Amino acid sequence: MSTAESPEEVLNSAKQLLKNQVFSGRFEERRLIDVGKVSMYKDIIIVDKSEKEFTKTLKTVNDTLVHHFEENIITCIVGTQSKLGTSCTYSILTNLDGVPLGGHWFQVKNVSLYNDIFHITLKSLRPLKNDNNTTSANITEYISNINKDAFRKWLVTFLAFLTVDNIVSFSRFMAVLVLTFFTGCYHLLELLLRGFQEVNVFVHNITPVLVACVDGVTKVFGGFFILIAMMWNSWNMRNKLQNQPSQASLRNNRVDLMFLEHTMRGKSPQPPYLRH
């Protein structure tokens, strides 16, 4: 389109590009927006990022209108750059009739120019059934763009850092770091060897003391048990000696009774201990 075209020709070109176009988008909210000197409520439709062809068409129409009319026209096409500046999301300001919030399939019904305001009339065809899939695809694409942008920034920073002075400084730093690491390992190994040597000397010196202590404890407990055993044997011998006289006296009494019985019968037998 050239600047010599009339407003009607520009509007007809926009109609040819946009009319009856079908795209997927999300009805986010209804907001009070200043349109020229008048404030009015507009429904904000965010075009899905997967609609790349329709997004290109919107950009072409918007650039043409701005280029042809300069600042004398207000368009209902709003482009929003991402925070990283890697992508642009387009929104359409329109008026819907009884359409709930959420994802829908929309169709461009008409394009008009009224009071220096470029209007796009939309019609909701049906809600998006794969709304979650579309959202997941948008999130995946957003994360991919973030990763690409982060890698690009890192690469630019790295290449800017990659100078002769920085390389020499980094080499010196790495040499000092490696030398410090090996020196520390050497001193640590030396300290461990000294520690093992001291432990060996300590064990060598403490072993006779421990053996003497164990031997002394063994002798103490052994003597204590021997003393108990001797006391037990002495007590048993004393009981046996006390029981023997009583048994002899009973035997003598039994013999005397037998001798008395025979005497009373007229017999005088000899006691058993006098018989041969």
Give the SSE map.
Elements: H1 7-18, E1 22-35, E2 38-47, H2 52-69, E3 74-75, E4 77-81, E5 88-94, E6 102-114, E7 117-127, H3 131-161, H4 164-264
Parallel strand pairs: 3-7
Antiparallel strand pairs: 1-2, 1-6, 2-5, 4-5, 6-7
Helix pairs in contact: 1-2
Summarize the structure.
The chain has 276 residues and is an alpha+beta fold. 59% of the residues lie in helices and 22% in strands. A seven-stranded mixed sheet has the order 3-7-6-1-2-5-4, with helices on both faces.
List keywords for this structure.
single chain; 276 residues; alpha+beta; seven-stranded mixed β-sheet; 4 helices
Number of helices: 4
Strand arrangement in the largest pleated sheet? 3-7-6-1-2-5-4
Shape: elongated
What is the end-to-end distance? 167 Å
Averaged pLDDT: 77
Number of strands: 7
Uncertain runs with pLDDT below 50, 5 residues or more? none
Keywords: Membrane, Transmembrane, Transmembrane helix
Transmembrane segments: 156-189, 209-232
